[in-house]
Design brief:
Layout: H1 3-10, E1 19-24, E2 32-38, E3 42-48, H2 56-76, H3 81-84, E4 88-89, E5 98-100, E6 104-110, E7 115-116, H4 124-140, H5 159-172, H6 182-189, H7 197-203, E8 210-212, E9 221-224, E10 230-233, E11 240-242, H8 244-255, H9 273-287, H10 293-320, H11 332-349, H12 351-365
Antiparallel strand pairs: 1-2, 2-3, 3-6, 4-6, 5-6, 7-9, 8-11, 9-10
Helix pairs in contact: 4-8, 4-9, 5-10, 8-9, 8-10, 9-12, 10-11, 10-12
Length: 366
């Protein structure tokens, strides 16, 4: 989308300030984002990828309700809701999004200045602070009725469903790539039983359904430039009913990986136990008293399961011809899948050490 079109779309939102610049911003896999700089303020304009989020109206209904709930909680606690949660800018006719017949669905948020997201953990204390922020996010939503939220992507963290999607992709072999990924496919097949572990615990009533973020990558939190605190959780498209194990596990998947999510050198990929401990400490410090014994017991497994799930999603997309995740080189999704599976294997090898760390902070905070 060119600048002229972006400006025309932005003009439909209730911003009474002169636009001085619009440019692409960020590097997400799914949505297209633009930074809009005005004379006295900044905003993010984002096109919702409706090929991924096929119910964009429901996505925005969820986000508006969640952010208003969070803003009220933050204000009541004496915080700053203009920095500690996303703020939706309504359209000139009062809508929470704008639909352009040609370009799609758009929303605008106020830009949080003086903070940034990081593609990788640079300081362990930042990861500890991120854990505290994710725990606080979940605490503030503990009294929000989860059943009233739309399921914006059905079965998003249904690991069994993701496993079955992979089997279907391998069977159909749409892009003719199966022959080159038999080792990766077998890695997933060997872990079939692991896929149902969290789901079975939910069905048994051992793990409660909560309002969860469901995409708690480290780059989905803004870290304050001065204090190093995690101040604002972003990318709320997947906020819906789920398990805290999804959020905890996905944070470990992304944040404890010593390599990159798409690292082609698998020697770089392993679970950094120092970062695992920092995150676990921060998370249980804030949320520990709210968790059940079974949730705590499954915490070391959560990282394995969600990392396996994500690897299967990348491998499925590779087999399907790269129709979901944005790629930047040939076999990019395969590289991502291989890195995830290497991380799963390392987490499996370190599971006892991880359990010892969880138990250490369970004794202190739970």
């Amino acid at each position: 989308m060119n600048t002229e079109k972006a400006l025309a779309i932005f003009s439909n939102f209730a911003v009474e300030d002169e636009v001085v610049d619009i440019r692409p911003f960020g590097g997400g896999h799914i949505n297209d984002t633009y930074l809009v700089t005005c004379a006295n303020s900044k905003y993010t304009l984002q096109r919702i990828n409706d090929a991924v989020f096929t119910r964009p109206v429901q996505v925005m209904e969820n986000i508006l309700r969640i952010t208003r709930h969070l803003a009220a909680k933050i204000s009541a606690a004496g915080g700053d809701p203009t920095r500690e949660t996303l703020n939706v800018i309504l359209t000139r006719d009062g809508g929470n999004h704008y639909h352009d017949e040609d370009a799609g669905y758009f929303r605008v948020f106020t830009f949080v200045d003086g903070a940034r997201s990081y593609p990788k953990v640079e300081q362990p204390v930042h990861f500890y602070n991120a854990a505290r922020a994710f725990g606080k996010f979940q605490n503030m939503l503990s009294d929000f009725p989860a059943a009233e939220l739309h399921e914006t992507i059905p079965n998003f963290h249904n690991t069994v469903s993701r496993y079955n999607d992979l089997l279907k992709a391998a069977e159909s072999d749409t892009a003719g790539r199966r022959a080159s990924v038999e080792a990766e496919l077998q890695f997933a097949l060997d872990r079939k039983d692991k896929c149902a572990l969290i789901l079975n615990a939910i069905e048994a009533g051992e793990v409660p359904v909560r309002v969860t973020h469901n995409d708690t990558k480290y780059d989905n939190i803004l870290i304050d430039d001065e204090s190093g605190e995690g101040i604002c959780i972003i990318d709320l498209d997947t906020v819906m009913p789920g398990s805290m194990l999804y959020d905890y596990g996905d944070s470990l998947r992304f944040g404890t990986n010593a390599g990159a999510e798409d690292d082609q050198n698998l020697d770089n990929v392993y679970c950094d136990l120092e970062l695992f401990e920092q995150f676990t400490k921060g998370y249980l410090e804030v949320l520990g008293k709210e968790l059940t014994d079974r949730e705590i017991e499954l915490m070391p497994m959560a990282g394995q399961i969600i990392t396996l799930e994500c690897g299967m999603r990348f491998l499925t997309d590779h087999l399907n011809g790269d129709t979901y995740f944005r790629i930047h080189r040939p076999d990019h999704n395969l590289d991502r899948a291989r890195a995830q599976f290497k991380l799963v294997a390392d987490m499996e090898a370190r599971c006892d050490e991880m359990m010892a760390i969880v138990n250490k902070y369970k004794e202190i905070y739970c």
